[in-house]
Amino acid sequence: MIRLFHISDIHFGLEDRRALDWVAQCIAREKPDAVAITGDLTMRARHREFTAACHWIKSLDVAVTVEVGNHDLPYFNLVERFVDPYRRFRSIEALLEREIDLPGLAIVPLKTTARAQWRLNWSKGAVGMAALNHTLRAIDALPSGTRAVVACHHPLVEAGTRGKALTRGGSRALAALASRNVCAVISGHVHDPFHLIHPTPNGPVRMIGAGTLSQRVRSTPPSFNELTLAGGEITVRVRNLEHVSTRDMQIEDVPENALPPRTEGEPVAPVRAVPTIDPPVY
Asked: Cα 242–248–252 angle (5° rounding)?
């Protein structure tokens, strides 16, 4: 049996300190085989936010892989965003987009965050061919019979709608992953957990989303996912301090508008490329 903790959207700068302390205690006490953090370590990619986020991550005595979220690219310094977008990750560089190999299972990263896109809203995801091919090659290089959990920040598709291309290239990527030995694609970004089976031309793919550990909650309290893989089956438990059941924590769809509501006291971006749309009610 393999047990993974799936954490996302910590948003240091607006983190939920009580939730973070609780998760750190769970990791120290229960010692999962690995922890996957699927992006948005910070709120505005400020140096002080990265310092706090990296300090917290380095304090976890466990194998960790960290994906990059859209909030983690420089927000105010556009020169750095284009020239050296991962500069502020230096202190945890060895953990960044890292493959973790476990007995019969590997966590394989897929980049969905872009420093720029040919659309106004750069917070949405994009899977370029280079990023997809890099992930496919990593999966193809795994030992025979090894299954993959693919970790990315953005959900690859809106699950129940034709949508507005939350992640460009996501449908193509999901279909390609369906043709490999992938047991799940895990992500964050929407701040609510979900567990869905999505059809593709190459067969169904399991999509698992983690909630947030920040104050930017949407329709569920701060939480993380505990994934258990045994006998070829994967079980998802959504753990939260409010003791809400997993079934009640998981939303039924990935919304087109994946932006969580602005928390009171949160700094407002100087420019919004697109108008904010009220999130759907679940």
From this structure: 135
